[in-house]
Amino acid sequence: MPDEFTEEVIDIFDCPPLKLSNDNTPYTSYSMEITSPLLTGKGSGTLNIRVWPVMFILGWGLSGCAIPFYQNEMDELPDTKHSTLEYAPSPFSGLQKKKSQTPVPAGVPQQAEGELHDAGPLSLERIKQLARQYNPTLIQAWVMVEGERAKALQAGLYPNPVGGYSGDQINVKDTIGEFQGGFLQQEIVTAGKLELSRQKYLARASAAEYQALAQEYRVMNDLGIQFYRLLGFQERVDIQRELLKSWQDQLLTVKEMFNVGQANEADLRQAKVQLQRQHLSMLMAENEVQLERERLMTLVGTSLPSESVSGKLAEDLPPIRFEAALQRLLQESPELGLARANVQSDQIMVQREQVEPIPNITVRGSAGRNYVETQTVYGVQAFIEIPIFDWNQGTIQQARADLRRQEAQVKLTELRLRRSMAEQFQRYLTAFQHTNSYREVILPESEERYRIQLQSYQADRETWPSVLEAQRDFFMLRLEYINQLIAWRTARVAIEGLLLIDGLQAPQGVTPAGHLDANPKPR
Fold it and tell me: CA 523, CA 347: separation in Å to the nearest integer?
């Protein structure tokens, strides 16, 4: 064999020449000294093995020069139509991560302690910025996207070749064998199976992106709801403190009336009980503020500065119309996008299982030395699996059943969203009607009653306890108004946020329960 052939083989794989000799010259010699009687059948001898350099270089080129997985840029998946959000773009600017970056806890941007607790109003936007960095469910959601994309990468990889040594008829005619050599075997995947597998998991990755988008809505919506609840409970504490002052004034008035004989001891003791009950109501309101603040911190994922939240609980916002809200929900809901992406994945899965019976071709090439005939010999084999009994018929039926179930899931999701919208809109409409009535009629009338009572007292036409009673009635109505505002804000945030709440719920996997996905290597 000429030296030029070996150099051409080396150039094909673009690898440096293999150094085997002691003087560090490239291995271009084809003879080796064999002294083992087991190999030669004699005491010693020199054998010319001209095939080994080529076989060794072939195996070296296929394996030794391979780029490690973590350094191979070709292993990265290109962007495709299956891996982009085409159905419902994220409404939260800057929140959606780039799909090529896997957010992990160690990579979450960390703020300095002084920056996190700097002075300033604790607004809703500031709280959302903190949640974007620290809420763990957002990290989980986007890691799941990367996991599905990794499945797509793995499912589309070509099978590794198999190389080995073969020795036949050893010791025949006192030789080391009729055949001594090596072989390379490769499975050739047919019918586009790898591409179908890859596309199926890219569709799953798209479904995972909808899942991540839904998680963004859940976190941001829960933050908004909890923020307005905390605002309302802070205002409730202020009203309870005003009520406490009113009951203190009531006790003082009863004491003065008791001293002049206009009230008895029972009235005095009743006033003390009422004051103590109001004190407990104020303490309960303060405890509720602390609870709501802790709930807000758990959604953010980190501690919050000590100052109170700053914002407006009551705002003049345009009313929500049911038909418009329902239409937007059915068009933009990530839950519907997830269901439809799973339908696309299952459609590809049916195609993939239908081509599974088409056999792959396994090709084996061998080269070695026939020591009986003392010549170099070569061999080629090709074989396939013949699908006579098992042509994947059961798996195909299961894949079709999964597809039909997922198509029904789309309709079920639409119906469930419609029902949830009706229920949430009923709560919104009731709270909206109550807040309008309190703001326009009830509170102004109650406040006017208190003003009239106060003027009558100043004109000596009314007693002071009657003025205090009118004042307390006004405060109680303000508490009811705050409760209705909280209910109105909660329902409005949920409707505008596509009914997605519970920001501490861990994102679920995109593969439905009982789905066909039981192979060790995804396909």
Answer: 14
Residue pointed to by tokens 């599905």: 148
Report the alpha-carbon distance of residue 96 to residue 212 in Å, rounded: 9
Interatomic CA distance for residues 289 and 230, integer angstroms: 6
Rounded Cα distance, 392 and 120, in Å: 65
376 to 9, 34, 52, 180, 523: CA distances (angstroms): 19, 18, 10, 10, 41
Residue 459 DSSP class: T
Structure tokens at 127: 């709280």
Please say whether the beta carbons of 500 and 218 come within 8 A: yes
User: Which pTM value belongs to this model?
Assistant: 0.73
Nearest Cα residue to 147 out of 518, 516, 511, 520: 511
Q: Which two structure tokens, joined as six digits, stand for 84?
A: 């982009």
The answer for residues whose C-beta is within 8 angstroms of residue 458's C-beta and 6 or more apart is none
Cβ contacts of 205 within 8 Å, gap of 6 or more: 82, 83, 99, 145, 148, 149, 151, 152
Token output for 176: 């080391």
Sequence-distant (≥ 6) Cβ neighbours of residue 248 within 8 angstroms? 275
pLDDT tens digits for 496-522?
999 999 888 888 777 766 565 644 445
Backbone angles phi, psi at 12, to 5 degrees: -60, -45
Measured distance CA(354)–CA(392) in Å, rounded: 8
Please enumerate in sequence order all residues whose Cβ is within 8 A of that of 109, keeping only pairs 6 or more positions apart, or say none: 133
Alpha carbons 33 and 60: distance in angstroms, whole number: 23
Question: Cα separation of 151 and 145, whole Å?
Answer: 10
CB 157 within 8 A of CB 522: no
Residue 192 DSSP class: T
* Chain centre to alpha carbon of residue 322: 30
The full length of the chain comes to 523
Please give the average pLDDT of every successive group of 10 residues along the chain, which has 523 residues.
Answer: 39 37 37 35 38 42 38 42 42 40 38 49 88 92 92 93 87 78 93 94 93 94 95 96 96 93 92 96 96 94 85 92 96 95 94 94 91 86 92 92 95 96 97 96 96 93 93 96 97 95 81 56 51
* 18 close to 26: Cβ distance less than 8 angstroms: yes
Q: How far is CA 388 from CA 48, 119, 310, 391, in A?
A: 47, 76, 73, 7
The pLDDT tens digits for 411-428 are 999 999 999 999 999 999
Max CA separation in the chain (angstroms): 137
Q: How far is 147 from 209, CA to CA, in rounded Å?
A: 11
Asked whether 155 and 201 are in contact (CB, 8 A), the reply is yes
122: CB partners within 8 A, 6+ apart:
304, 305, 307, 308, 309, 310
The three-state (H, E, C) secondary structure of 369-432, written as one string: EECCCCEEEEEEEEEECCCCCCCCHHHHHHHHHHHHHHHHHHHHHHHHHHHHHHHHHHHHHHHH
Cβ atoms of 367 and 179 closer than 8 Å: no
